[in-house]
What does this fold into?
Amino acid sequence: MAPQTLDGGFRPAGVGRLDDWHVMARVLLPGSVSRRARILLNEVLSRAGVDAEALGDAENAVAELAANAEEHACGPFELRVVFVDGSLAWCEVVDGDRDLGDIPAILDRLRSRGDEPGLDLWEEHGRGLLLVYLLSKGCCQAYPTRMCATGASGKAVVFALPWKADAHLPPHPWAAAFPDHRSST
It folds into this structure.
């Protein structure tokens, strides 16, 4: 495969060339976006041998992102699971809204708080992202992308996926950007 970047130029921090990567993308139909995303991710992670606790965390993160997409953005909606060198790397919830809105600012604010990433419980926006941030150990971000199914512009909110500790893997693609991210066992 010729050297290329994901999504027309996006490359997670710390990633050099990705010679062997592929994406599993599934359209998520309105009205069942969260439930379907959770089911699909469970199937992929279960087949990969991810332990129950890490699987539950990833399911909760994807369900939250999918629910947020359906509530705050427009369709179409997609779930993407990215594999690097045949191993799980990250999960994306993609919607048809090109506006990143407050997502990058909320994630930056969470990162700047270090060991105390909490948000004020009375704040109207950001609690779902706080949950994803905590479940992914801070290894999440948002960026513009194109829909796999239609080629239309949209945005992706993404988090790192857990993997088995005994898997033969290259360093996690986001390791340089998120040094606190730990793989699951």
About this structure: Confidence is low (pLDDT under 50) at residues 1-15, 166-185.
